[in-house]
Design the sequence.
């Protein structure tokens, strides 16, 4: 049992770390940009510190930047250094990880896109209400701004951003990030495999409450949270629980909670948590019925939370080490490891800097003003905040461009779906449940990419096209259950039905736009 | 009671959590204990044990009156509408049966988009089927679950069902059409 728990922890910790790496890198980049391009005074101005729009600005900036709840940690630490009030910081921490352009597009392929837009509006209500009340209760929550010298223009300014990112990666931010990942690992160690499949059914009035208990240690990237919402809507599970999952599962982690208590103390931290949980729960119960999907037959289960449970169950034919290796190789694509190596390199450079330059001589040299070297009328000095704004806008633009790469054109999606279709249907005919599940999940994911990719390129997606993709997903789900129940006759019928559905889907997306 | 403890997640936590937390010389801060307690409480409250889960069956409920395909759906409509109209004038049919029949008919109408999509109908015909379905919905009693719901008007329904019937050949699989 202890061995299974250890490897369960390892699988969930590592998987979450790999998924989080690109978002964590963005978080460190944003923190470094705020420190070196903006500086404390301009950072406060950017977030509207001291104005009525501060909470709204934090929400908007959070929505636009592609960070997750772990990537938000270096940013909120930087905001605190800049002397921003707690309500604004926490508003950013909560809203940043909920949505980004990629996940929003994915969300719009769900059966009820209005639910996703409502969730986004509810998140604004949460950060506004909690932030306003908390700031009113504790008006002196801001630290005095850090005394930071500006770095002059030129290569030194660019280098200063790099060194700030490296030093931050080897600071307490890393510990909070590891703590957040440990929360996800802990769930993978102690929750028995598949044991959450019935907890969040639509007819369980306590589903949002249970989700509140589970969602804080959960770590979900915006995309993962959105795909889980997709599964919950497909099974017509509790909408309230889905909302809590998005707000707390994607928006919070144990690392953020630990930071909150360390920075603001027990009383303020607990007040914020109580306020947050009360508003989230009230909204969750408020949206539970109105947003319930009307045209879906409710299922008595969901698979959305299998990934938070122990990854192994029963007796294995091989060692846990081998099983873990195999699982990681299958679940993580080779290109997904690259951001992790870059993250490792950033930490390494930060550690080297800290050890080799304890008195920050490098920063002193960077901050030393260079002689003016303006050579002509068009050779102008771009102020740091302008560069900072351009960098943040660039990150947003990259995430928009990334949408086109992540959601390819329908032709490419359909081509990629051939492998997953062959994999899922042959595994089903061989009555191999694990393989069927593996390929069916990928097949399902491609149907969503197909919808989002088609919408991106045609700016519309008819009900006809939505239905074609939805029918395929529903049939795949039933296929997986029939294989699990070893119903050979039904499996054979379903395989031929899925084949027909696929042919119709292909026709719809290639010939009927 | 003892058996319940043996099968429960409490036992799992009892046997596994201390082993996880046994780190010599480490003093746990208060908040860490609070978080652990929160996780433990939430886990005791939700889910089911592995053993009991294995006995449960993951189900996708398919109602008995759900038609098999688009053709079957149109056939069901053509059969049920006159029967309901007759039933509303007859005293032999109980209120309960009439309400059940109305609710089932309402379900069948709501399945038009799904079954039209799950057929060979092309986009224009699919949209025509959905539009006809919407007209059927509009012609339906407002509260079909109510015993005093107004009777359905066959004269309004029949031309709409005919419109759907015209789409049936196009909805069939290619080889069925031949």
Sequence:
């Amino acid at each position: 049992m202890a061995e299974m728990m250890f490897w369960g922890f390892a699988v969930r910790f590592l998987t979450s770390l790999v998924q989080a790496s690109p978002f964590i890198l963005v978080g460190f980049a944003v923190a470094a940009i705020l420190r070196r391009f903006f500086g404390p005074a301009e950072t406060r101005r950017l977030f509207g510190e001291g104005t009525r729009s501060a909470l709204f600005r934090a929400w908007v900036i959070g929505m636009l930047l592609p960070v997750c709840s772990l990537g938000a940690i270096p940013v909120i630490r930087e905001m605190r250094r800049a002397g921003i009030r707690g309500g604004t910081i926490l508003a950013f921490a909560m809203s940043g990880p909920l949505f980004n352009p990629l996940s929003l597009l994915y969300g719009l392929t769900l059966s009820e896109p209005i639910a996703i837009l409502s969730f986004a509006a509810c998140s604004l209500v949460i950060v506004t209400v909690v932030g306003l009340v908390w700031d009113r209760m504790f008006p002196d929550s801001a630290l005095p701004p850090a005394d930071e010298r500006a770095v002059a223009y030129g290569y030194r300014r660019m280098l200063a951003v790099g060194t700030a990112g490296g030093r931050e990666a080897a600071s307490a931010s890393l510990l909070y990030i590891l703590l957040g990942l440990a929360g996800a690992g802990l769930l993978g160690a102690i929750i028995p495999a598949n044991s959450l499949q019935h907890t969040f059914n639509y007819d369980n009035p306590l589903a949002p409450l249970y989700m509140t208990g589970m969602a804080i240690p959960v770590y979900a990237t915006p995309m993962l949270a959105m795909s889980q919402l997709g599964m919950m809507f497909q099974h017509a599970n509790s909408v309230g629980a889905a909302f809590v999952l998005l707000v707390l599962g994607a928006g919070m982690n144990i690392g953020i909670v630990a930071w909150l208590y360390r920075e603001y103390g027990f009383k303020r931290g607990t007040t914020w948590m109580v306020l947050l949980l009360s508003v989230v729960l009230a909204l969750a119960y408020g949206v539970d019925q109105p947003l319930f999907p009307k045209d879906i037959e409710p299922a008595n289960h969901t698979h959305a939370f299998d990934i938070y449970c122990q990854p192994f169950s029963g007796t294995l034919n091989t060692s846990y080490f081998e099983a873990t290796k195999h699982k990681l190789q299958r679940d993580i694509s080779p290109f997904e490891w690259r951001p992790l190596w870059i993250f490792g390199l950033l930490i390494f450079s930060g550690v080297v800097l800290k050890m080799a330059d304890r008195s920050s001589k490098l920063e002193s040299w960077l901050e030393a003003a260079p002689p003016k070297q303006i050579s002509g009328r068009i050779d102008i000095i771009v102020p740091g905040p302008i560069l900072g704004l351009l960098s943040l806008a660039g990150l947003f633009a990259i995430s928009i461009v990334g949408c086109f790469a992540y959601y390819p054109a329908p032709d490419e999606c359909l081509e990629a779906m051939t492998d997953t279709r062959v994999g899922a249907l042959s595994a089903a005919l061989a009555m191999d449940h694990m393989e069927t599940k593996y390929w069916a999940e990928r097949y399902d994911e491609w149907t969503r990419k197909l919808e989002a990719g088609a919408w991106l390129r045609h700016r519309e997606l008819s009900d006809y096209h939505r239905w074609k993709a939805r029918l395929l997903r529903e049939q795949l789900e039933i296929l997986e259950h029939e294989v699990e129940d070893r119903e050979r006759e039904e499996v054979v019928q379903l395989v031929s039905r899925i084949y027909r559905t696929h042919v119709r889907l292909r026709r719809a997306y290639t010939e009927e736009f | 009671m003892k058996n319940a403890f043996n099968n429960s997640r409490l036992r799992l936590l009892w046997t596994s959590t201390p082993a996880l937390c046994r780190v010599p010389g480490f003093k746990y801060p208060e908040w860490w204990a609070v978080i652990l307690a929160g996780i433990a409480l939430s886990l005791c409250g939700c889910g089911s044990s592995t053993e009991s889960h294995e006995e449960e069956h993951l189900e996708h409920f398919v109602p008995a009156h759900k038609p098999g395909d688009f053709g079957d759906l149109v056939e069901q409509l053509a059969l049920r509408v006159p029967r309901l109209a007759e039933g509303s004038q007859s005293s032999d049919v109980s209120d309960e049966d009439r309400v059940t029949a109305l609710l089932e008919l309402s379900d069948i109408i709501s399945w038009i988009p799904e079954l039209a999509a799950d057929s060979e109908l092309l986009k224009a015909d699919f949209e025509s089927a959905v539009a006809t379905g919407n007209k059927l919905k509009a012609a339906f009693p407002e509260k079909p679950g109510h015993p005093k719901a107004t009777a359905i008007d066959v004269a309004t329904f029949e031309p709409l069902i005919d419109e759907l019937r015209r789409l049936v050949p196009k909805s069939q699989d290619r080889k069925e059409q031949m």
Remarks:
- Residues 414 and 506 of chain A are 7 Å apart (CA to CA).
- The longest helix of chain A spans residues 2-46.
- Chain A touches chain B through 55 residues (CB under 8 Å).
